């Protein structure tokens, strides 16, 4: 076979899209961080995900940064530079004297510093397990007994919590981390400061590392509507009924001024991405993969070339075209981009292979890393072997870039290392990006390889519906409280009573309240602890919005919206697609 013939052989185009997302955990009135998840995932996951790409320069991927996450990372970096820390745990990590902490601060440490996957992040470390056993013993004597815990116990607990939230790449490369883990206990203030300073260096380096990967062409950086709102629901609650005709909707009926708010989230995302990474974003992962025809139109107007969602959205759309007839095997329709007919500014839509993405998200954590990587490659080879036609199948693997790894041994280190290494050498599988795939399609005039949709049934990457964010009593109540606050925002801002700075702060607080995460957590299928945290923060955010509008907050905001009590996979941070 000639060299030119080899070059024209059919390939499988594999696109990883790692979605990096944390909602804004700040109290907008004080600037204090209420929950620590942004900086913890920065230390553990954003560092490791960059490392694996840096170690495998032939492996390509799309990395999607939600703008509000990027802004928080920049805020944390600035806190470390200035020394003005606005996060409770970090403040206490670098506090010299811990013996004189009051009961609320002690309880905060105890309530926070055992929150992790115990099987992978606590039990392997005897010194950390010992601290946990002591805490359990104290619990039996009543919460007031925390006043008897020594400052040394609290110091050791703070150090261990941050050590186990370190990325595996950091653990293997940092002399400070290795030394502290070896010592195990009796950490001095100087050692705590070494750890504190390392955390600052890691956070400060994250965005520059990804920017460098993008500048050398290894990754494509994409964006998401600024505060991660569900755009189809901002535009029209009724879009939820396209995939679930009987879905109950909020009493409000619609989100006031939703079109302008959706446009604002997109415009701000474009501006933020350009500022943070020095380049524009060709594509957008819509929050939760949530799409509708109206949403797609907005994305085209904003200049985006591609977007993506779950395969159930494609399946629902194709079934609608065939009056509900059964679809053929996904090999016949899934592995190519689509264009929606009738759009003036077409946006290429890619659809996630839900089964393969969920294998990484939920299954492979239970496997040996090399076995999991082999199985994943095998699944791809089967798609390649069975795929009909001459065109290259395009397989989209899309999932959170942070939440799965704490369930893996060593934060997924062996799985990701082995997977990228095998892909770099594979004769038929080529890693690429959405943007490059669109360019290849347009430059070579290969539009015959693109599917056509007559309609798009609105939905998300979870079940192809919006049921994770709307339709249950708890979720609908959350929407009604938000709609009421938005109407108050409109009245006050239209009256001209707020000066420019007050208007800016109120608008930022409103945008935060519009994020998807609050509605994600409402529901009895989630853990009570997680639901309580997000319920409290959502109501606090709405309360702050009223205060910024110089209005008394409604009494309803004092009442819990949702309780929880389930035991979902991955603690509820991720959901299976079907």
* Largest sheet geometry: 5 strands, parallel
Count of β-strands = 10
**CA(first)-CA(last) distance:** 44 Å
Structural class: alpha/beta
**CATH topology-level fold name of the largest domain:** 7-stranded beta/alpha barrel
Q: Based on the coordinates given, report the CATH architecture of the largest domain.
A: Alpha-Beta Barrel
Summed up, the domain count is 3
In short:
Helix content is 51%, strand content 8%. By secondary structure, the protein is of the alpha/beta class.
Features:
about 575 residues, alpha/beta, 7-stranded beta/alpha barrel, immunoglobulin/albumin-binding domain-like, 3 domains, 5-stranded parallel sheet, 3-stranded parallel sheet, 10 strands, about 50% helix, globular, disordered N terminus
General description of the model:
The protein is an alpha/beta fold. The protein has three domains: 46-69 and 214-227 and 259-453, 7-stranded beta/alpha barrel; 74-204, no CATH class; 473-572, immunoglobulin/albumin-binding domain-like (Up-down Bundle). The chain has helices spanning 3-7, 37-55, 67-82, 88-93, 103-112, 118-121, 126-139, 151-164, 168-173, 175-183, 189-215, 231-235, 240-243, 258-277, 293-301, 311-321, 354-363, 369-386, 413-424, 434-443, 473-495, 500-513, 517-521, 528-548, and strands spanning 12-20, 61-65, 219-222, 283-284, 306-310, 338-340, 348-352, 394-400, 429-431, 451-453. The strands form three sheets. Strands 1, 2, 3, 8 and 9 form a five-stranded parallel β-sheet that branches. The protein has a three-stranded parallel β-sheet with strand order 4-5-7. Helix 2 (37-55) links the parallel strand 1 (12-20) and strand 2. The radius of gyration is 24 Å and the shape is globular.
């Amino acid at each position: 076979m000639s060299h030119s013939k080899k070059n024209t052989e059919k390939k499988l185009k594999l696109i990883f899209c790692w979605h990096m997302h944390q909602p804004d955990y700040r109290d907008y009135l004080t600037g204090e961080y209420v929950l620590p998840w942004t900086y913890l995932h920065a230390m553990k996951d954003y560092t490791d995900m960059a490392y694996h790409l840096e170690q495998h320069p032939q492996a390509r991927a799309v990395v999607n940064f939600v703008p509000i996450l990027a802004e928080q990372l920049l805020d944390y970096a600035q806190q470390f530079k200035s020394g003005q820390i606005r996060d409770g745990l970090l403040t206490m990590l670098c506090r010299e004297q811990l013996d004189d902490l009051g009961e609320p601060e002690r309880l905060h440490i105890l309530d926070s510093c055992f929150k992790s996957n115990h099987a992978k992040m606590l039990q392997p470390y005897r010194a950390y397990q010992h601290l946990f056993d002591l805490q359990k013993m104290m619990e039996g004597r009543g919460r007031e007994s925390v006043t008897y815990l020594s400052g040394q116990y609290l110091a050791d607990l703070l150090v261990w919590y941050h050590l186990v939230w370190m990325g595996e790449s950091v653990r293997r490369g940092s002399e400070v981390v290795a030394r502290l883990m070896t010592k195990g206990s009796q950490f001095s203030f100087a050692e705590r400061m070494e750890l504190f300073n390392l955390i600052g260096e890691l956070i400060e380096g994250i965005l520059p590392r990804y920017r460098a990967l993008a500048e050398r062409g290894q990754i494509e950086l994409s964006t998401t509507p600024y505060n991660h709102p569900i755009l189809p629901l901002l535009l029209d609650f009724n879009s939820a009924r396209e995939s679930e005709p009987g879905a109950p909707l909020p009493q409000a009926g619609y989100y006031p001024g939703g079109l302008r708010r959706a446009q604002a989230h997109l415009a701000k995302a474009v501006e933020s991405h350009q500022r943070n990474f020095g380049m524009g974003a060709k594509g957008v992962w819509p929050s939760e993969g949530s799409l509708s025809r109206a949403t797609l139109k907005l994305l085209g107007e904003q200049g985006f070339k591609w977007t993506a969602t779950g395969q159930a959205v494609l399946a629902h759309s194709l079934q609608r075209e065939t009056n509900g007839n059964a679809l053929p095997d996904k090999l016949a329709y899934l592995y190519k981009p689509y264009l929606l007919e009738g759009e003036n500014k077409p946006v290429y839509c890619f659809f996630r292979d839900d089964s393969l993405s969920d294998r990484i998200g939920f299954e492979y954590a239970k496997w040996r890393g090399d076995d999991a990587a082999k199985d994943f490659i095998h699944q791809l080879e089967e798609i390649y072997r069975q795929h009909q036609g001459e065109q290259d199948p395009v397989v989209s693997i899309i999932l959170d870039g942070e939440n799965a790894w704490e369930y893996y041994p060593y934060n997924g280190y062996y799985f990701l290392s082995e997977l990228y290494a095998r892909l770099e050498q594979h004769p038929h599988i080529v890693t690429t990006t959405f943007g490059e795939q669109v360019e290849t399609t347009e430059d070579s005039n290969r539009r015959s390889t693109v599917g056509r949709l007559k309609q798009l049934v609105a939905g998300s990457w979870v079940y192809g519906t919006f049921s994770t964010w709307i339709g249950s009593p708890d979720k609908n109540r959350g929407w009604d409280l938000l709609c009421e606050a938005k109407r108050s925002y409109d009245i006050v801002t239209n009256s001209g009573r707020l000066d420019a700075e007050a208007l800016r702060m109120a608008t930022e607080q409103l945008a935060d309240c519009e994020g998807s995460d609050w509605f994600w957590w409402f529901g009895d299928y989630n853990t009570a602890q997680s639901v309580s945290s997000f319920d409290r923060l959502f109501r606090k955010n709405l309360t702050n919005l009223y205060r910024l509008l110089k209005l008394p907050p409604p009494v309803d905001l004092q009442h819990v919206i949702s309780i929880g009590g389930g035991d979902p996979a991955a603690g509820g941070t991720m959901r299976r697609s079907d």
